[in-house]
Write a structure and sequence with these properties.
Keywords: Membrane, Transmembrane, Transmembrane helix
Organism: Streptomyces seoulensis
Number of domains: 3
Shape: globular
Protein name: Lipase family protein
Helix content: 55-70%
Number of strands: 7
Distance between the termini: 71 Å
Strand order of the largest sheet: 2-3-4-1-5-6-7
C-alpha cells in the first residue's frame, strides 16, 4: 500500500492519448468514473493497487491502472484498446482534495451563513424565459447576502469596540481582571490610549483585519479553484436546456470581483460607522465643539453616501452566463474599497481627537444597528418569498420543494444562522470578560432577544421530529409486509425483515426535508419578528421586560432567556471545537468536506465570501477530458458518476459541444439529480432541463435502490421515454442464505453500486449503443 500511495502522488503525468485509429471498427471504449461525497482514492475506484496519474495535479486528477497506460505514446495499442472479456479502459477522476484537503479548510465552517445564502440564489423556481422577476429574485438575494456581511462585521465591532474597548476597558473592576487591558483603562493607566475615542480607534483594528482576511480568502480561493476557464464552444444552447449549458455558467469572474469589492467596502464602512457614531453623539450634545460637530456630520454623510454607492454596485449587475465573463471593471474594483478605507482612516483620525470630559458608560448604540439589520433581512426575505411564489405560479412544478419557496426559506435560515452566530460570539465574550460580576452592561438587548427566540423554535422542531418519527415507524411496519411479499417461499427471518424495512423507511426521510424546512422557517420568522418587536418596544432583556407580567409569563421569559443564552454559547463552542478538531483528525476533515461537497457545488453568485465552488474546477476538468479524448481517439466514452459525481458528470455533459454529446453516454447511480437537485434547484435541474439533457445525450441509464437515502430515479416527464431509470436494484441482494450468497448479504444503501452485476451489464449496454456503425463497402466500378 505504501508503494500505491507513492504512485498516487507521483507528479509525472501519463503519456498523451494516441491518435485516432485507422478505422471505425477500432474505436476504443473508456469509462470515466467520478466519485461522490466524502472522497476516495484511485485504488478503491479502480480496484487496483497500482495507479498512475494520467493528467491533472495534486488537487484534482485523472488516474488509470498502471497496466492501462502504454510505455510510450504511439498508435492505438492493446494497452488502450477495449479487450474482449475485460470491458473498457477505466479512468478515475479524483476531486476530493477540492473540498476536504488540509485542516485549514475547517475554518470554512465559520462562513456557513454565507454559503447558505449563496444556495438561495440558485433555488429560484423554473421559468420559460428569464425576465424582470428573475432579475429581481437575484437582486433580493444579493442584498440579503450584503446584510450578512454587515452583520458579521457589526458583530466583530460589537465585541472589539463595545464589549472590550468601551465597557470593559472603561470599568476599573473589569479592566483590573485583564492585565492586557490595563494600558486602556483611564483609572489604571492614564496614558495616551485611555480616552474613549482612541480606545475605539485601536479596537477598530480587529474588525478591519477580519474584513481584510475575508477579502484575501475570497481572492485567493478564486485564483486556486475557480479561475479555470471552461471549454469554449460556439454553439448556442437550446431554449429548454437551462443555464448549465451556457458557456459562461462556470466562470463568473466579473461578478465575483464586483461583489468582492462591494462586500469589502461594506465591511470597512461598517467599522467606520461604529467608530464615528459614538464620537458624533458626544460632539452633537448642547455646548459641544462646533468644529468637531461639523466634521462628524460631514464624515457621517460621506459614509452614508459611499454605502449607497456600494448598494448600487450590488444592484447594478447580476451574472452574465451566455459568454465568458472576463472583462473587469478595474476602476470600480479599486475605487470602491479604497474610498471605504479612506473614510475609515478619516473616522479613526476623527475619533482620536481630544474631547475633554468624554467618558465611556453603558453600552454603545448597538441596538438600533442590529435591529435595523434584522428588519432589513426580514423585509428582504418576505419580498423574496413574494417573487418566488409569483415565479412558481407561472410554471408550476409539483415536485419543487415548498412550492417554489425553498429559496426564501434557505435565505431566512442563513439570516438566522448569522444572527445566532453574532449573538453567540457577543454573549461568550461578555461572559469571559465579566462572568457574573455585573461590572459591564453586556451585549445589545436585540441579541439577547434573538437568543431567547431559540428555545420556542427548537420546541416546534422537536414536535415535528416526534411526528416524523411516528410516521416513519408506521411506514416501517408497512414495509415489513412488502419485504415478506418480495421473497415468497423463503424462510422468514423477523429480525432481517425488520432491519430491511427500517432502512427503507429511514431512506424516505430525505423526502421530508421540505416539510422540516417549511415549519422551521415559519417558526423562525414568527419568533424573529417577536424578538425584534420586544427589543425595540421595551429596550430591556426579556426577563426584565416581563418582570411585572403574569407569573407564568415571567417564568417563561426567564427560562427562554437563560436557556437561549446557554444554547447559543454551547452551539458556538461546539462549532469552534469541531473546527479545531479538524486540524488533527482526518475523519473530521472528511465529514466537513462532505458538507462542502453538497453546499459548494454552486458558483459564488450572491456572496463572494462563501466557501469556493469546487465545480468551477471539476466541471471544466471533466469537459476538457471528455471532449479532447473523443476528438483525438474517436472512441466511445461513458461518464460514470456516483452520488454527487453524477451531478458533476451531468453538468459536464451540458457543457459539451452538441457533436460530442452524441458520442457520450451517462451512467448515474445513487444519483440525487432529481430527488434533491431537481426539487431544490428546479430552474437548473427541473424536469425540462433533465429532459433536454436526455434528448441531447446519446444514451443514459440511472441505477437506484429503495434503501438509498440520497439517490433516486430521474423521473423524466411523460413523452421522453422510460429507458433512463432502471427498476430499483434489490438491496440486500439476497434475503437469506443461498448457494450464491452463503453468508448474509449486507444492506448497501448508498454505497457499492459497482459491485452489483447490473452495473456492468448496463455499462456494457451503453457502450454497445455508442458503437459506431461500420460503413458499407463501396461497390467496385464497372470496368467493362
Amino acid at each position: 500500500m505504501e508503494h500505491a500511495r507513492e504512485r498516487i502522488t507521483d507528479p509525472r503525468p501519463g503519456p498523451p492519448d494516441p491518435p485516432p485509429p485507422a478505422s471505425a471498427g477500432g474505436a476504443r471504449g473508456l469509462e470515466l468514473l467520478v466519485h461522490g461525497v466524502g472522497g476516495t482514492t484511485p485504488e478503491k475506484m479502480l480496484a487496483e493497487p497500482r495507479t498512475i496519474r494520467v493528467t491533472g495535479d495534486d488537487t484534482a486528477a485523472v488516474y488509470r491502472r498502471a497496466e492501462d497506460v502504454p510505455e510510450s505514446p504511439g498508435p492505438a495499442g492493446p494497452a488502450l484498446d477495449e479487450r474482449p472479456g475485460e470491458g473498457p479502459v477505466r479512468e478515475a477522476y479524483v476531486w476530493c482534495n477540492l473540498t476536504s484537503g488540509n485542516g485549514t479548510r475547517a475554518l470554512w465552517l465559520l462562513l456557513l451563513p454565507f454559503m447558505v445564502v449563496n444556495l438561495a440564489h440558485w433555488m429560484r423556481p423554473s421559468v420559460e424565459r428569464p425576465g424582470p422577476s428573475v432579475r429581481l429574485y437575484g437582486l433580493l438575494v444579493r442584498l440579503a447576502a450584503l446584510t450578512l456581511t454587515v452583520l458579521l462585521v457589526a458583530a466583530a465591532s460589537e465585541v472589539a469596540l463595545d464589549l472590550v474597548a468601551w465597557q470593559c476597558a472603561g470599568a476599573p473592576a473589569c479592566a483590573g481582571r485583564h492585565t492586557w487591558l490595563t494600558f486602556l483603562s483611564p483609572s489604571l493607566s492614564g496614558g495616551w490610549w485611555t480616552p474613549p475615542g482612541r480606545r475605539l480607534a485601536l479596537a477598530a483594528l480587529a474588525p478591519t483585519l477580519l474584513t481584510a482576511l475575508l477579502w484575501y480568502l475570497s481572492h485567493r480561493t478564486w485564483s486556486a479553484y475557480e479561475s479555470h476557464r471552461p471549454l469554449t464552444t460556439t454553439a448556442e444552447p437550446a431554449a429548454d436546456e437551462g443555464a448549465l449549458a451556457r458557456p459562461g455558467f462556470w466562470y463568473g469572474r466579473r461578478l465575483g470581483a464586483r461583489l468582492r469589492a462591494a462586500h469589502t467596502s461594506a465591511g470597512l464602512l461598517t467599522v467606520a460607522a461604529a467608530v464615528t457614531l459614538p464620537a458624533v453623539r458626544f460632539d452633537h450634545r448642547p455646548g459641544g465643539p462646533a468644529l468637531l460637530d461639523l466634521l462628524g456630520v460631514l464624515l457621517g454623510t460621506g459614509i452614508l453616501t459611499w454605502a449607497c454607492a456600494v448598494v448600487a454596485v450590488v444592484c447594478r449587475r447580476g451574472r452574465s452566463e451566455r459568454e465568458l465573463d472576463q472583462a473587469l471593471d478595474r476602476h470600480l474594483l479599486r475605487a470602491l474599497p479604497l474610498g471605504a478605507l479612506a473614510l475609515l482612516l478619516l473616522a479613526v483620525t476623527y475619533a482620536c481627537s481630544a474631547r475633554p470630559g468624554w467618558q465611556s458608560a453603558g453600552r454603545l448604540p448597538g441596538d438600533p444597528a442590529f435591529g435595523a439589520i434584522m428588519l432589513a433581512q426580514g423585509i428582504l426575505v418576505v419580498a423574496l418569498a413574494v417573487v418566488a411564489r409569483r415565479l412558481h405560479r407561472r410554471l408550476p412544478d409539483p415536485r419543487a420543494a415548498m412550492r417554489g419557496l425553498g429559496g426564501p426559506a434557505v435565505a431566512l435560515l442563513a439570516c438566522a444562522l448569522g444572527g445566532v452566530a453574532s449573538g453567540g460570539v457577543a454573549q461568550r465574550v461578555a461572559d469571559w470578560l465579566d462572568g457574573t460580576r455585573a461590572s459591564i452592561t453586556g451585549p445589545p438587548v436585540t441579541l439577547t432577544w434573538q437568543a431567547s427566540a431559540i428555545p420556542p423554535v427548537l420546541a416546534v422542531l422537536l414536535v415535528l421530529i416526534a411526528f416524523l418519527a411516528r410516521r416513519t415507524a408506521r411506514l416501517a411496519r408497512a414495509e415489513r409486509r412488502r419485504v415478506r411479499a418480495e421473497h415468497p417461499g423463503e424462510p422468514e427471518d423477523p429480525h432481517r425483515t425488520r432491519r430491511i424495512a427500517h432502512v427503507r423507511a429511514m431512506a424516505t426521510l430525505t423526502d421530508r426535508a421540505p416539510l422540516i424546512l417549511a415549519v422551521g422557517s415559519v417558526a423562525t420568522l414568527i419568533a424573529g419578528a417577536g424578538a425584534l418587536t420586544g427589543a425595540l418596544a421595551t429596550g430591556l432583556a426579556p426577563a426584565h421586560a416581563a418582570r411585572d407580567a403574569w407569573a407564568p409569563v415571567h417564568v417563561a421569559a426567564e427560562i427562554c432567556q437563560t436557556l437561549g443564552s446557554w444554547l447559543v454559547g454551547v452551539g458556538f463552542l461546539l462549532f469552534v471545537t469541531w473546527g479545531r478538531r479538524a486540524y488533527k483528525d482526518a475523519s473530521a476533515r472528511r465529514t466537513i468536506g462532505i458538507l462542502w461537497d453538497v453546499g459548494t457545488f454552486w458558483p459564488r453568485a450572491a456572496h463572494p465570501f462563501a466557501p469556493p465552488c469546487y465545480a468551477e474546477r471539476a466541471v471544466p476538468d471533466l469537459t476538457w477530458r471528455t471532449a479532447t479524448w473523443t476528438e483525438r481517439t474517436g472512441g466511445r466514452l461513458v461518464l460514470s458518476g456516483h452520488s454527487q459525481g453524477s451531478v458533476l458528470v451531468a453538468a459536464a455533459a451540458w457543457q459539451l459541444p452538441p457533436a460530442v454529446r452524441q458520442r457520450v453516454a451517462l451512467l448515474t447511480y445513487g444519483s440525487p439529480l432529481e430527488r434533491l437537485y431537481g426539487r431544490w434547484f428546479p430552474a437548473h435541474f427541473g424536469p425540462a432541463a433533465l429532459a433536454a439533457l436526455h434528448r441531447d445525450i446519446c444514451c443514459w441509464r440511472n441505477l437506484h435502490r429503495r434503501t438509498d437515502p440520497i439517490g433516486g430515479p430521474i423521473r423524466l416527464p411523460a413523452g421522453h421515454g422510460t429507458e433512463v431509470d432502471h427498476e430499483p436494484l434489490p438491496d440486500p441482494r439476497a434475503y437469506g442464505r443461498t448457494p450464491e450468497h452463503p453468508l448474509p448479504a449486507p444492506i448497501l444503501g448508498h454505497s457499492d453500486y459497482q459491485e452489483d452485476p447490473v452495473f456492468v451489464r448496463e455499462r456494457d449496454r451503453l457502450l454497445a449503443r455508442l458503437h459506431p456503425d461500420l460503413p458499407a463497402p463501396r461497390p467496385e466500378p464497372d470496368r467493362k
